[in-house]
Amino acid sequence: MSVVSNTSLEYTLREGANALGLDLSEAQITQLLDFLALLQKWNKVYNLTAVRDPQEMLTHHLLDSLAAVPPLRRHVAQTGQGSAARPGARLLDVGSGGGLPGVVFAICCPEVDVSCVDTVAKKAAFIQQAAGTLGLSNLHGIHARVETLAGPFDVVSCRAFAALADFTAWSRQALAPHGVWLAMKGKHPHDEIAALPADVGVFHVEQLTVPGLQAERCILWLRPVA
């Protein structure tokens, strides 16, 4: 990649982070750019994402994932996780693929312990490589089916992974008693919400604006209900 491209990517990332109200350290900016470079490198061999153009990858993947960081930070702060009484929240990112949003969460929320699970071994291996290369001790790649994981995880997340009913059913045993699901979606999934079982409830729908991306995005927050 040329120096001009690197400068352009860094500028777009900084502008996007500012637009999202994200106060990122220089180290975090560097880690995000290094993660993008790593994703490009591995993508040539392992086909981690269909998006190939670096600038498009930055907007469609990195900034798209970054848009969910403020809501996640707010949730962790509100629940008191990461405090002395309740050290570090544990997050499970399901069907993480190339680590989106899991790796981005691990970079931007060092107080959160992030495990990325995928049924494809090479994708889990990529997460482990990213953890080592980026120096993220709070990031782990797991090669498994989510149904086999016991948890407990305080937050179980996904990004365009599966229908809400399937996502919550497959990951339910991994959810802590007080835990919540964080599902990143495009348009408001009315049909998927209607198809949820009676013991799963949506308690908040949060609209997201992704810098540079002209597309609808939202987060659905769900929890088990009695």
UniProtKB/TrEMBL annotation:
EC number(s) per entry: 2.1.1.170
Which positions does UniProt annotate for S-adenosyl-L-methionine binding? G95, L100, V146, E147, R159
**One Pfam family linked to the record:** GidB
Name the keywords, alphabetized. Answer: Cytoplasm, Methyltransferase, rRNA processing, S-adenosyl-L-methionine, Transferase
Which residues fall in a coiled-coil region? none
Protein location: Cytoplasm
The transmembrane segments are: none
InterPro entries registered for this protein in UniProt: rRNA_ssu_MeTfrase_G, SAM-dependent_MTases_sf
Indicate the principal place this protein occupies in or around the cell: cytoplasm
Purpose: Specifically methylates the N7 position of guanine in position 527 of 16S rRNA.
Q: What is this protein called?
A: Ribosomal RNA small subunit methyltransferase G
Natural source organism: Diaphorobacter nitroreducens
Gene for this chain: rsmG
